[in-house]
């Protein structure tokens, strides 16, 4: 390959990478944000918020939903493990207070790289303390988060 074709090929590769990168990121799991009703110091979320919409006929569920919460200044990530098993975690890193980001079955702090399980347990430093977890109760239709 001569120099002109090499430069041309590299140029197209760079442009292609720049154009395709945002499109491929769109294929990643999108966060599902929910709203909660407030009853005193209890946040109430419908279990139906975890159901994915789609025409497959088979029920599928979001692994987690994110609840925006003004009271704490950070959102709350609610993971679903089973029909009546959930965990609610304040998305504030215990190391320096950055907002952690869910990455499937774990949460990562973009500031310094701390990692936490979907139950809030520290997996990777520099954080030394687990994420704040809230007490949860459920009934047939709702999830109740005590804040």
TrEMBL record:
Q: Does the keyword Iron-sulfur apply?
A: yes
Against Pfam families, the record matches this protein to: Rieske
Q: Which cofactor does it need?
A: [2Fe-2S] cluster
Q: Which UniProt keywords apply?
A: 2Fe-2S, Disulfide bond, Iron, Iron-sulfur, Metal-binding
**What InterPro entries does the annotation carry?**
Rieske_2Fe-2S, Rieske_2Fe-2S_sf, Rieske_Fe-S_prot, Rieske_Fe-S_prot_C
Q: Please indicate if the UniProt record lists rRNA-binding as a keyword.
A: no
Residues covered by the Rieske domain: 63-145
GO CC annotation terms, alphabetical: membrane
UniProt superkingdom: Bacteria
Recorded GO MF terms: 2 iron, 2 sulfur cluster binding; metal ion binding
What's the name of the protein?
A: Rieske [2Fe-2S] domain-containing protein
UniProt organism field = Mucilaginibacter pineti
Lineage of the source organism?
A: Bacteria, Pseudomonadati, Bacteroidota, Sphingobacteriia, Sphingobacteriales
